[in-house]
Design goal:
With about 230 residues, the protein is of the alpha/beta class. The chain has helices at about 35-45, 95-105, 120-130, 150-165, 180-185, 200-205, 210-220, and strands at about 1-10, 15-20, 25-30, 50-60, 70, 140, 170-175, 185-190, 195-200. The protein is built from seven helices and nine strands; from the N terminus they run βββαββααβαβαββαα. The strands form two sheets. The protein has a six-stranded mixed β-sheet with strand order 5-6-7-3-8-9, sandwiched between helices. The chain has a three-stranded antiparallel β-sheet with strand order 2-1-4, with helices on one face. Helix 2 (about 95-105) crosses helix 3 (about 120-130). Residues about 225-229 have low confidence and may be disordered.
Length: about 230
């Protein structure tokens, strides 16, 4: 699938002007304010009315949030009511929820608990289960592992890779974390000030970045962590 043009403007000022292709899994990486969140919101149809969005899409499905598109937020509490039992937050029958829970590695006993009784990793799996209910063609991920500890982060990323292989959806992973992007995605687009400055196979870009901005992002992510790209 290809976004051949995505242009977002506000009061005649262009905020985002990009194009990209998602063959399987794509990481959209950049600093805060680079245009990552605006890109996600435009695909979900969540931009404020004051912004003008031009979007040209070439794929074998239409972009429809809640149907062909599903979204996993950074903070699962934004998608869950803390005062409602987990099973009551799904709008499907309980046997279907159990099937989804099995897919994401959650025990069925959690259905009768409230969100504050679950760990961050468990809550994120609940939200991923919700996102998979409509069998999406494209899964949009907004830094879903940022608040997790390193071990849980690895488990969630591995689970997403496994689910993608089983269910066949594409992934657009918005993040500033190069290491998580490397773990999950095949390709990368580096965005700066609303424009793509570098793109390609993620391992090749990490090993041989051509842009100074990309090098800065890589250094900020991997310096003093003992990682090798």
């Amino acid at each position: 699938m290809k976004i051949s043009k995505l242009k977002i403007s506000l009061e005649n000022k262009i905020l985002v002007n990009i194009n990209f292709n998602i063959s399987s899994s794509l990481a959209l990486v950049g600093q805060s304010g680079s245009g990552k969140s605006l890109t996600l919101k435009s695909l979900l149809g969540m931009l404020p009315s004051s912004m003008i969005c031009e979007l040209e899409f070439d794929g074998d499905f239409e972009l429809r949030a809640g149907e062909t598109l599903s979204f996993v937020p950074q903070n699962p509490f934004t998608a869950l009511s803390p005062l409602t039992k987990i099973k009551k937050q799904f709008f499907i029958k309980e046997h279907k929820i159990k099937e989804l829970f099995s897919m994401v590695g959650l025990g069925h006993d959690l259905l009768d608990r409230f969100p504050p009784e679950l760990s961050g990793g468990q809550l994120q799996r609940v939200v991923i289960a919700m996102a998979l209910d409509n069998k999406p063609k494209l899964l949009l991920l907004d830094e879903p592992t940022t608040a997790l500890d390193p071990d849980t982060r690895v488990l969630i990323l591995d689970m997403l890779k496994k689910l993608q292989k089983e269910l066949g959806f594409k992934i657009l992973f918005v993040t500033h974390d190069m290491n998580s992007a490397r773990s999950l995605c095949e390709d990368i687009c580096v965005i700066k000030n609303g424009k793509i400055v570098e793109t390609g196979n993620i391992l090749q870009v990490l090993q041989n970045p051509t842009q100074t901005y990309t090098k800065i992002l890589i250094d900020a992510n991997f310096a003093n962590r003992g990682f090798r790209v």
